[in-house]
């Protein structure tokens, strides 16, 4: 079913929703790779997922009993068990259901680290999730945001991995106004992930961050891409891990991507200030990224024949695409490491 749209990418767990957005005895509809999905949490807090299409005549479904996990199609009332098997057809109550053999497509789903992880592949799901997060340590706080983007998931992943746009698109928020400084980056390519580690620099940072941390700090950061569509950004300031962003870039339909953003931070006594300021700042940054990526996506459609002029500092984008292409072909790429420099 997903072969044409997502090929081998479906063989990985996808972080499709924040766990807290699906409460007990509630359902949630979403799309991934253009496929409508129905998720629900039963009366005992267990989560389930099916492809949101009735076996009868393909109408969308609804969960009608969260105790028994009954799914009912609102069109002609066919009822299904949580295992996807049809169990009642109101217009023909005596029909031989075994012979009919009508069922829904159920999907593996699990809850971990505050996310709901869904698996769309045909084979047994991978034993591990793309993200090995430890339990929340003391002193860390979290905020969660969602934003719909009008671009592809690949261009959005590229944007979140791309430090070179920050002095332009996010001037004054992520980067300061000073002269650009040279950064040394170690790039590590592994079969399922890409890690760009920026060597420590003493930087002037944006006004907003200066307000929280003071001037001229030692900053070390890394940007990671994890198959199929996760970006993880970590900041270590004066040797202390202070900030992590995890972003799931979920392709909902053609040219539409939902970003689920989880920001975690640890600024001691300033946590309460950060918790107030960060949602506003993050929304501003995401809105800036929305505008440029929407225009870029539209232009790439219009100028589909024009090739990009990629340079050395675009190596991360290139490697991310190599990892994704290999995954789509169900191959893995050879691990490698390289160094490069850029000015920010
Ligand atoms: S389409 Fe679902 S019951 Fe008829
Ligand atoms: Fe950005």
Summary keywords:
344 residues, alpha+beta, Rieske Iron-sulfur Protein, Naphthalene 1,2-dioxygenase Alpha Subunit, Chain A, domain 1, 8-stranded antiparallel β-sheet, 4-stranded antiparallel β-sheet, 7 helices, 22% helix, 36% strand, binds FE2/S2 (inorganic) cluster, binds fe (ii) ion
Q: Can you offer a commentary on this structure?
A:
With 344 residues, the protein is an alpha+beta fold. The chain folds into two domains: 3-118, Rieske Iron-sulfur Protein, CATH 2.102.10.10; 141-343, Naphthalene 1,2-dioxygenase Alpha Subunit, Chain A, domain 1 (Alpha-Beta Complex), CATH 3.90.380. 22% of the residues lie in helices and 36% in strands. The chain is built from seven helices and 18 strands. It has helices at residues 3-6, 97-100, 153-161, 166-169, 207-213, 271-302, 315-328; strands spanning 14-18, 26-32, 35-41, 47-51, 62-65, 70-72, 79-80, 86-88, 109-112, 115-118, 141-149, 182-190, 193-203, 217-226, 230-237, 240-253, 256-265, 336-343. The strands form four sheets. The protein has an eight-stranded antiparallel beta sheet. A hairpin with a 2-residue loop joins strand 16 (240-253) and strand 17 (256-265). FE2/S2 (inorganic) cluster is lined by residues 54, 56-57, 59, 73, 75-76, 78.
């Amino acid at each position: 079913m997903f072969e044409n749209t997502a090929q081998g990418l479906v063989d990985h767990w996808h972080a499709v929703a924040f766990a807290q957005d699906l409460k007990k005895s509630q359902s949630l509809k979403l799309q991934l790779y253009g496929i409508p999905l129905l998720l629900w949490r039963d009366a005992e807090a267990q989560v389930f997922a099916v492809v949101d299409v009735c076996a009868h005549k393909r109408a969308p479904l609804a969960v009608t009993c969260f105790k028994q996990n009954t799914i009912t199609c609102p069109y002609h009332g066919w009822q299904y068990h949580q295992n996807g098997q049809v169990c009642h057809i109101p217009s023909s109550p005596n029909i031989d259901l075994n012979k009919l053999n009508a069922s829904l497509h159920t999907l593996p789903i699990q809850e971990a680290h505050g996310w709901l992880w869904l698996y769309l592949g045909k084979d047994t799901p991978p034993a591990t999730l793309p993200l090995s997060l430890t339990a929340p340590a003391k002193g860390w706080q979290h905020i969660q945001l969602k934003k719909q983007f009008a671009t592809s998931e690949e261009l959005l992943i590229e944007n979140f991995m791309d430090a070179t746009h920050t002095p332009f698109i996010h001037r004054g928020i992520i980067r300061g106004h000073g002269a650009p400084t040279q950064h040394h980056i170690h790039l590590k390519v592994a079969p399922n992930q890409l890690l760009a580690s920026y060597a420590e620099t003493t930087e002037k940072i944006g006004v907003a961050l200066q307000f929280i941390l003071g001037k001229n700090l030692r900053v070390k950061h890394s940007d990671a891409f994890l198959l199929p569509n996760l970006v993880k950004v970590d900041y270590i300031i004066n040797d202390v891990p202070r900030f992590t962003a995890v972003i799931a870039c979920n392709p909902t339909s053609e040219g539409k991507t939902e970003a689920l953003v989880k920001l975690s931070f640890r600024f001691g006594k300033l946590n309460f200030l950060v918790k107030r300021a960060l949602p506003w700042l993050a929304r501003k940054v995401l809105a800036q990224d929305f505008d440029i990526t929407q225009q870029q996506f539209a232009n790439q459609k219009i100028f589909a024949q024009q090739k990009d002029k990629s340079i050395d500092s675009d190596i991360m984008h290139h490697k991310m695409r190599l990892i994704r292409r290999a995954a789509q072909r169900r191959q893995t790429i050879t691990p490698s490491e390289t160094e490069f420099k850029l000015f920010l």
